[in-house]
Amino acid sequence: MKRRILVKRLTDSGYREVRNDGGHAIFAKEGSRPVQVPNHKEVNENTANAILKAAGLK
């Protein structure tokens, strides 16, 4: 999955980028736990699904 698609799904659901330190960006939303998104053009499909599941979007 392309990183920009993953980030778009997170931001559309209310997450916002709070930190971008090196290899990962941290996205947070009020009332939910933060999620990490790797800074790669392509994110492994299993990793993307795990991020979406942790964010409550899957």
Set down the secondary structure blueprint.
Layout: H1 3-12, E1 16-21, E2 24-28, E3 35-38, H2 45-54
Antiparallel strand pairs: 1-2, 2-3
Describe, in plain words, how this protein is organized in 3D.
The chain has 58 residues and is an alpha+beta fold. The chain has a single domain, classed as Metal Transport, Frataxin, Chain A. It is built from 2 helices and 3 strands, in the order H-E-E-E-H. The chain has helices spanning 3-12, 45-54, and strands at 16-21, 24-28, 35-38. The chain has a 3-stranded antiparallel β-sheet. A hairpin with a 6-residue loop joins strand 2 and strand 3 (35-38). The longest helix is centred in the first third of the chain and has 10 residues, at 3-12. The protein is globular and about 30 Å long. The model has no long low-confidence stretch (mean pLDDT 96).
